[in-house]
Amino acid sequence: MPRRTARDAQERAMTSSLEMPPRRSVPAPQLTWAQRLREVLLSPNAIRTASVAVFFVIWEYYGRRMDPIFMAPPSAIFQAALELIRNGALEKALIQTLWPFAVGMALTVVIGVGLGIVMAQWRTLEYVLDPFVNALYAIPRIALIPLIILWAGLEFAGKVTILVSVAVFPITVNTYSGIRDVRGGMLEIGRAYGATEWQIFWKIILPAAIPFIMAGIRLAVGLAIIGIIVAEFFTAISGLGGMIVEYANVFATAKLFVPIIVIALVGVVLTELVMWLERRMSRWRQLERERF
Fold first, then answer.
1. Mean of pLDDT values over 139-147
2. What pLDDT is stored for residue 28 in this prediction?
């Protein structure tokens, strides 16, 4: 009897499915020309572009009406930039700044991430290193520059040391916080599946801490740019920082703005690069956001 009832229910389900009309896909509504234009004009990139354009228009208007010693309009800055590019001064200064910046930033990431991992994974080392990290983080780095110059000199090593001392701590603190923030339930699941401590670290802890680490690197990029420019002010006056000092001393305001704008552009490009790397290295986080 139960078999017959089940067979009858199956036959009724098959009959009803055959009688149902096939589903048709509903086409998406077509946007009008006005709606598409409004969507483009209100997009984030369009708003950013418009704000920058308005800023430069206002700057040009008021810059032409001020004393050129105090302010230069964007048109004069552009002409000064072309002159510095033609005579090779800007390219030379940019290379002199980017080379120690690249080496110092690489050392900053390695030291900062390594120190944060060590402090988060081993409590004894955390107790040993924590007072020193907090003390050095609280000291203004500008106060250490005379000592760094005495120890590392005025050239390449001094610039790199100043940069690392300025930018390393956000990476250390964020790496430590990211590893400590890993939920205990995730670690228990890894141990339940028989993962070793190294596998747990590489497969669970480190991927979960990637957003924190990348946020620390993003903060460190801005501090590293400040560090390298300050280093060029106080050590061998060269690079983009040396150009700022040189043109400030002779009140060449239009040329003074050129290295400042180049520094700002370098900062924007590097920050966008770090954000792109963060999205590439933590795709699981983006998938979680889209899921909910």
1. 84
2. 54
86-291 to CATH, choices 1.10.1040.10, 1.10.3720.10, 2.40.128.630, 3.40.50.10210 = 1.10.3720.10
Q: Is the pLDDT of residue 7 over 50?
A: yes
Quickly count: other Cβ atoms within 10 Å of residue 188's Cβ: 10
> 55 to each of 50, 70, 169, 184, how far by Cα in Å?
9, 18, 34, 49
Give me the amino acid identity at 6.
A
Residue 291 has pLDDT above 50, yes or no: yes
Mean per-residue pLDDT, 4-32: 56
Domain ranges (residues) in the chain? 86-291
Check: CB of residue 107 under 8 Å from CB of residue 282: no
Residue 119 tokens, joined: 């402090």
Say if residue 56's pLDDT is above 60. Answer: yes
Q: What is the mean pLDDT of residues 44-73?
A: 86
Q: What mean pLDDT is reported for the chain?
A: 82
Say if residue 195 is exposed, middle or buried (CB neighbours under 10 Å; 0-12, 13-18, 19+): middle
